[in-house]
Write a structure and sequence with these properties.
alpha+beta; Immunoglobulin-like; 5-stranded mixed β-sheet; 4-stranded antiparallel β-sheet
Length: 369
């Protein structure tokens, strides 16, 4: 019996000593989480901030503690997440690409990295490898001059980090036959016959000649309880010289699980809302939806509004026609209200201990018989 408990104690120690990185996208990071970076749109792709100004926060925790994240001194650090063109309203690039070309290195000069012990490794990949304990922080639209979206988007590159070394072999060739330099130098990566020596690329976004609508959205408060009111604010800007009709669609998505309408009203009974708004030339219109969280909304639960405006005639630049905002319905006590019950998530270490106790009890009963 003592031998069994000794084995269980050793397994428990190994469980706690195992280095584990966990990351998620939230409206706001907890006190023990690092607010690594933020981005302005969840689905259509957005710009990046390192100063906390956008609604989608990439929050990470390492071994149940807040990891150190640096925005300088990242040279040679394998935990460098990406290179950004600015501290706010920025495009990003893979560090490998930024280092390979001098003109990119000068423009994408802001690096962000994990500065931790145990060490964290990061790389752009097609998909993160869960067997290597890799976690997805976000997805990028390209290896260079990229927008950022959440990990469930269709963007081709995942930004992966792990406490284990990461190989980016599965990238092979990237867009326009430009090879990922790591695949060219890593002996474990198979050669790709389609790769060619790329010309020096020219960074910077291409100017748009046919932009009509620009969308900005916010939600207040981003964390609330049952019975409280939420305000979704959407500003639709018409940057063209003609009056336009903006055909607005808003979908409500519950993250990671089954959709249930969390509001008392019927606007989102099926998860969608639509409306048409007249927007004068070179002006904007503000739409505000006030929604009350119902008393039966699931708690705790994370949600996302996906806002989209249909393209205007001859509009070809659609990047700014969509936006996403996140909010959370909390379990707990509404200010001035009664306590709200919820089934808490059981920590893995607690499940582990319960398992040991149950097995020990069964063995003890068998021995007594």
């Amino acid at each position: 019996m003592r031998k069994f408990f000794l084995i269980g104690f050793i397994l428990l120690l190994s469980f706690f000593s195992y280095a584990q990185l966990q990351c998620s996208i939230k409206p706001q990071c907890a006190n023990n989480e690092a607010d690594v970076f933020q981005f302005s749109s969840g689905e259509g792709g957005g710009h990046v901030s390192l100063t906390g100004v956008y609604n989608n926060h990439v929050c990470c925790i390492l071994n149940n503690e807040k990891p150190v994240v640096a925005t300088g001194g990242c040279a040679g650090n394998p935990g460098t997440i990406f290179a950004a063109s600015d501290l706010c309203n920025a495009h990003i690039a893979s560090v490998d690409i930024a280092d390979q070309y001098s003109n990119f290195d000068n423009i994408f000069s802001h690096r962000i990295c994990f500065n931790t012990n145990p060490r964290v490794y990061c790389a752009f990949k097609q998909n993160c490898d869960e067997s290597n304990n890799e976690v997805c922080l976000a997805r990028a639209s390209d290896l260079i001059n990229a927008h950022v979206s959440d990990c469930g988007s269709s963007f081709p590159y995942a930004i992966c980090c792990s406490t284990n070394p990461i190989s980016a072999c599965n990238l092979n060739c990237v867009s326009d036959n430009v090879c990922n330099p790591e695949c060219e130098t890593d002996p474990n990566c198979p050669p790709d016959p389609d790769c060619v020596t790329p010309p020096e690329p020219q960074p910077g976004p291409q100017p748009s000649q046919n932009d009509v609508f620009n969308i900005n959205a916010s939600v207040q408060p981003s964390e609330l309880y049952r019975g409280q009111e939420l305000t979704l604010s959407i500003r639709i800007e018409n940057v063209s010289s003609q009056d336009q009709v903006a055909n607005l669609t808003i979908s409500l998505e519950r993250l990671t699980t089954t959709f249930v309408n969390p509001f008392s009203s019927d606007e989102f009974v099926s998860g969608d809302y639509s409306s048409s708004i007249n927007v004068a030339a070179n002006s904007s219109e503000l739409i505000e939806l006030k929604l009350q969280v119902s008393d039966t909304a699931p708690v705790p639960s994370n949600w996302r509004f996906n806002i989209n405006v249909q393209a205007a005639p001859n509009e070809s630049y659609l990047t700014n026609n969509s936006a996403s905002v996140l909010f959370t319905i909390l379990a707990g006590t509404q200010p001035g209200g009664a306590p709200i019950s919820a089934v808490p998530e059981m920590p893995l270490w607690f499940v582990f201990i319960i398992g040991i106790v149950v097995i020990a009890s069964l063995l003890y009963r068998k021995r007594e018989q």
